[in-house]
Amino acid sequence: MTLSVPGRSWPANSAPNPRIPPLTDVRCKGVSCARLSMAERCSLMFDPSWSVLLLCGLGGYLLGSVPFGLVLVRLAGLGDIRAIGSGNIGATNVLRTGRKDLALATLVLDSAKGAIAALIALVLAGPLPALVAGGLAVLGHNYPVWLRFKGGKGVATTLGTLLATSWPVGLAACLTWVAVAAAFRYSSLAALVCLALAPVYALFLATPAHAVVFALLAALAWARHHENIRRLLRGEESRIGPKENDPPKTTPYLKRDGGVVGRQASPAFFMN
């Protein structure tokens, strides 16, 4: 077996210096990369497969960075969603404007960001670039470059990525969300449980690569939900559906600066 680089080749058992452990690369197929010139090493480093992964990741991140919640609320004339409620750009906070249609549109579009990024990469480049693109779309939603890296929590975008890269895992995660939400009436708890189980589902329904990526996305979601986790532990997290001490639906919803926007909606049923 030989390593071929334009103009040069070596047998597989060659070594530059027996006293120095050879620097190997999986693409060198066991041949010491220490014998390569800097230009030849760069030609291996910038292998087209890595270029594709980088392009898919960048495209996914930029698509995920589009803050649909912020855009829709502004187009509706309701101001800056970051000045309302929790300041989050996700569908849950958009619902606090009293506009369920805007919240639903935000939920669908945020999910579509992960799904579209992954599907485009899947068609053009394959399964691994699709995982990279979808994962980076979630990262873009959580840390959007356009908003100084202050974004949402990524649940909807993550579920969109799961459905696009492995629909059985995505479907199982969505059904888990529905089951936990119906049983305990906590949207945040349902999101945390379904994303934590997604890597387990992937081990049986997809591949180890899917399981690794889904585990990373679950860890990111748990980190972004740290405040929700604290409220759950204290028993202070808002439940899905009306509560006895809820204000009437006609109560104006206050902005963070004391202004008024829309009307108070029912407790959030949507995902961030």
From TrEMBL:
Origin species: Pararhodospirillum photometricum DSM 122
Please describe the quaternary structure of this protein.
Probably interacts with PlsX.
| Involved pathway(s) | Lipid metabolism; phospholipid metabolism
Membrane-spanning residues: 50-73, 159-184, 190-223
Name of the protein in its database record:
Glycerol-3-phosphate acyltransferase
Q: Where is this region: Disordered?
A: 239-260
Which Gene Ontology terms cover its molecular function? Answer: acyl-phosphate glycerol-3-phosphate acyltransferase activity
User: What's the EC number here?
Assistant: 2.3.1.275
The protein's matches in Pfam families, at most eight in alphabetical order, are given as: G3P_acyltransf
